[in-house]
Fold these 2 entries.
Entry 1:
Amino acid sequence: MLDWDDLRFFLALSRHGSLSAAAKVLHVSQSTVGRRLNSLEATLAVRLLNRTPEGYVPTLAGEEVRRKAESLETEALALERDVTGRDSHLRGLVRVTCAETMAAHLLAPSFAGLHSRHPDIMIELIPNPRELSLAMREADISVRMRQPEQNDLVVRRIGGIAFGLYATSDYIKERGDLNFDDGCPDHHLITQMEDSQEMTQSAWLTEMASRSRVVLQTSSHEAAVLAAANGGGLACLARFRGDEEPRLVRMDVPTEPPSADVLLLVHKDNRDTPRIRTVLTHITESIQALEHLLQPPGANDEEVRDVGT
């Protein structure tokens, strides 16, 4: 008889392509993932995945098993959400995913207050630059700065984040003043990678300083902050981080960088689950209470609003 857990491990490995990546998602060891795959292949008497230099790739039989396993997974998750939604107790695990800087500087400090009011709710905070699947229960709540590509989500704008252009005084002395009319030649840029949540701000920076050279790309906002603070170049940073870093100076610019929305995401089947609803409310109130830091005086922002479901 097939073991559903074996199928679950097979799906993770086929999606992520490596034992280490699948093990990280499943919170187990690499040997456990490999053992589960061997168990499933032995039960079905067929090879499901081929190991290649690019990672594990499904065979023809593996593709067929994956399609059917994903169908079973969808039904199982729908059943779980339906049953979980009937739970009236404020206890249990709530997984929250967001960008690294938001996790460390905005959400993590706020959760002490949540735990004092609801000690039976446990938060699993997952800083991740990529968008985790709420439908597949990789997370219950997501806090992001751009619209999601996933379906069946409730999305609400709960705030905004202002950005500025930063560098150290020593860097400016070494490289010279910023001449935006000439594209800032001889300057270095620190930008975000293409799949990051700050693509809009990076595009603004490369356009403003079109003759500068990109010397560092990263998916980590914290890495960009520290690189700039150590004289690595110009970086477009969230003002709540850049303004608080004593080594950085905010540059005067002819056009302010675009701000970013703070979006709160939850799967439509989970939004009324009491413990998840409680955490959603807490995150909303916490972000809105920090408006003076996220949108300092003089930063343009619109009134907090819903952006749809």
Note: The two ends are 41 Å apart (CA to CA).
Entry 2:
Amino acid sequence: MRAFFTVAGLALVLAGCSGAKPEESGASEQAAAPEVSAAPVAYASLTGDAAKGEKLFMQCKACHAIEPGKNIIGPSLHGVVGRTAGQVPGFNYSPANKASGEVWSEDHLYAFIEAPQKVIPGTRMAYFGMRKPQDRADLIAYLKTVK
């Protein structure tokens, strides 16, 4: 019974991180695949707003901190823009993330935040993705200020 409540609680947390309502998150019976925009919007065509991004970061705070060296469920995102994936000291990354060799450029973060499992298959980041292109651009604008 305890395991059931742990799994159900995790499903609710993950639904909250996605910004989706629980009935939209796929937490009930089957995990929903991330929705990826039918007509992709290029990151370069957007201008991010760091103030809006800071508010959007509230979705990320359940798993990530912005303080240097403070790892929670996910690694610290302090200085993430320009950092190589899988490199925060003291964080236990998935083998897929460690081996990716990806640099968290703005374009790469934009794609990853939309659909983490598609960008780095095997990542442990259990997040359904941020659907709105402008929200992703705003979040990245905020993350660029955290260095």
Note: Residues 96 and 121 are 7 Å apart (CA to CA).
